[in-house]
Specification:
The chain is α+β, with helices and mostly antiparallel strands. The chain has 2 domains: 6-81, 2-Layer Sandwich (Alpha-Beta Plaits), CATH 3.30.70.260; 87-175, Alpha-Beta Plaits (2-Layer Sandwich), CATH 3.30.70. It contains 6 helices and 8 strands. It has helices at residues 19-29, 56-64, 67-71, 86-89, 106-116, 153-167, and strands at 6-14, 33-42, 45-53, 75-81, 92-101, 120-130, 137-147, 170-175. The strands form 2 sheets. A 4-stranded antiparallel beta sheet has the order 2-3-1-4. Strands 6-7-5-8 form a 4-stranded antiparallel beta sheet, covered by helices on one side. It is flat.
Length: 179
């Protein structure tokens, strides 16, 4: 299977009204199609990461004209990519949710344990927020994992128990429905 022409465009700039419209308009005006995206405010910055498809000519134009977004006050990174192989899409997927009092090192401890298990992280999101009554800082992590066929969910759970104990995490590991 040949991969189709795709480009990842990442933009980071001060959060403001209209930033998403500006980036998506830039892509549309050059004939690109946004297939997938992740966007979020982090601190006072807004990050945009989009997967764009198009003809070779459209993507080349997006690449060559990306400095126009830089001129508009955004940091831009553009990189070619391809469609994943179907075999990669057939892996089982699981979700890990961890919650705890916020402290340094949670993301590293969990991601290192996941790596040792030979499991890939497909998506990861974290957030800090105040506890309802005390206002103390709480932390939440949610990761989507892609499990090789040789690794089962119980093996992932067992592999993360020591990290959960060491980091004082409430941990949930469950399968996702097939795509």
């Amino acid at each position: 299977m040949n991969g189709k022409n795709q480009l990842v465009v990442m933009a980071l700039g001060p959060d403001r009204v209209g930033l998403v419209a500006q980036v998506s308009g830039f892509i549309r005006e050059r004939g690109g199609n946004v297939e997938d995206s992740r966007m979020a405010v982090l601190g006072s910055e807004f990050g945009v990461m989009v997967l764009v498809s198009g003809s070779e000519e459209q993507l080349a134009r997006l690449e060559s004209e990306s400095s126009k977004l830089t001129d508009a006050g955004m940091d831009i990174l553009v990189r070619r990519t391809t469609t994943p192989l179907e075999a990669d899409r057939s892996r089982q997927r699981a979700v890990v949710v961890a919650e705890a009092l916020d402290h340094e090192g949670i993301v590293h401890s969990l991601s290192a344990a996941i790596e040792r298990l030979g499991v890939s992280i497909a998506a990861l999101e974290t957030a800090c927020y105040p506890a309802p009554l005390s206002g103390g800082p709480l932390f939440r992590l949610e990761a989507v994992l892609e499990l090789p066929t040789a690794i089962d969910l119980d093996g992932v759970r067992k592999g993360l128990v020591d990290v959960a104990d060491a980091e004082n995490l409430d941990l949930e590991v469950r399968m996702l429905e097939p795509r």
